[in-house]
Amino acid sequence: MATKLYIGIDIGGTKISAGVVTDKGRILERVKIPTPANSTPKVIVTAILRLLEELLFNADIKLKDISAVGVGVPGLIDASSGTIKMVPNLKLGGFNLQRALSKRLRKHVTLGNDVNVGMLGE
User: Fold this and answer.
1) Is the CA virtual torsion 70, 81, 49, 2 positive or negative?
2) pLDDT at residue 107 is higher than 70
3) CB 4 within 8 A of CB 22
4) What is the pLDDT of residue 1?
5) E strand or H helix that includes residue 69
6) 97-105 and 41-59 helices cross at what angle (nearest 10)?
7) In 1-122, where does DSSP find H-type helix?
8) Which pTM was predicted?
9) CA-to-CA distance for 117 and 109, rounded, in angstroms?
10) What radius of gyration, in Å, describes the C-alpha atoms of the chain?
């Protein structure tokens, strides 16, 4: 059986980081960039997409090989809809990041509070 690959993204007030991991939890590659200051949702999504291009290039993996994407955001999240309710340091309140990334990546995207998804990762 082939190894499934996943992308994890952590959005923070100072940095956005991402990694490719196997279904066994092995980290294949990591990248990070500074979070664009005073960003609109469009700027954040564009930054994430560029970060993922770099991540996949560095890991020598194609997007078609990724099974799903998980995103952690520091704030209140409506996990059932994928909408960010409130983020302390970012202008993402009311934005459906899950839908935006899923549409652009054509992958299943799950969104959650960064602390909660970090605990799941452990």
Assistant:
1) positive
2) yes
3) yes
4) 45
5) strand 66-73
6) 40
7) 41-59, 97-105, 114-121
8) 0.92
9) 13
10) 13
